[in-house]
Amino acid sequence: MRPRRLVVVLGTGTDVGKTWVSACVLATLRQAGVTVAARKPAQSFEAGDDPLRLDSAVLGDATGEPSETVCLPHRWYGVAMAPPMAADVLGRDRITTAGITAELTWPAEGVDVGLVESAGGVRSPQTHDGDAVALVAALAPDVVLLVADAGLGTINSVRLSVGALAGTTEASNVVIVLNRFDESDDLHRRNRTWLIDQDGITVVALPGQEVELAAMVRGATSAP
């Protein structure tokens, strides 16, 4: 059963904190009594990494689900590359967008919010035949969270990523999350203001706006 609200989390690049943001949103919703579930279509990592620190484990901690439910074990790739590249290195089967989307099953009793976290950036390969943009097009989510760094290069990376998403989802469905935001940093504040005032983009900053972001994900309110 499709969640009542389906959310896809993307990044402007790697290491921008998608999993931390996803877990934060899910935990905030869960604490408010909202039923949640998370899915990671595929995850790659360094061989020997602590299983408790994998993306699927962090997301599972936030939702109360087993890591193996968040990301199916046959979609774990122990090479730190984009999933289809890791699959090639390991001699595993090709990954297709149709295949991973078909595997995204949800609790039979239904959930209020289901979150799908991609790998890498908006144009990072998710499968052998598609990137994160193709994943968004296939899932048709209610909300897309685009996680970005708050510092130098933010405006460029956000604009490029939003442009890549054009035609796959309504612009009003996209929320920019400036992660590791420091209110005392003048550049961080100016980046946020520029994106809101000049580009008309919905922007929230973390830490600081966890409750507001959770409400937007749930569909209860809009950003200022």
Folded structure, characterized:
The structure is a single chain. The chain is of the alpha/beta class and about 220 residues long. It has one domain (about 5-40, about 95-220): Rossmann fold. It is about 35% helix and about 20% strand. The chain has nine helices and ten strands. The strands form three sheets. Strands 2-5-1-8-9-10 form a six-stranded parallel beta sheet, with helices on both faces. Helix 1 (about 20-30) runs parallel beside helix 2 and helix 1 (about 20-30) packs across helix 9 (about 210-220). The protein is globular and about 45 Å long. It starts with a strand and ends in a 6-residue tail after the last helix. The model has no long low-confidence stretch (mean pLDDT about 95).
Features:
Rossmann fold, 224 residues, 6-stranded parallel sheet, globular, two-stranded parallel sheet, single chain, alpha/beta
What is the CATH fold-level name?
Answer: Rossmann fold
Low-confidence stretches are none
Quick one: CATH superfamily? P-loop containing nucleotide triphosphate hydrolases
CATH architecture: 3-Layer(aba) Sandwich
**What pattern of helices and strands is seen along the backbone?**
EHEEHHEHHEEEHEHEHEH
Oligomer: single chain
Mean pLDDT: 95
Q: Structurally, how many domains make up the residues? A: 1
* Radius of gyration based on Cα positions: 17 Å
| Distance separating the two termini | 32 Å
The first-level CATH class name: Alpha Beta
Describe the main β-sheet briefly. Answer: 6 strands, parallel
Number of DSSP-assigned strands: 10
Structural class, from helix and strand content? alpha/beta
Shape designation: globular
Helical content stands at 25-40%
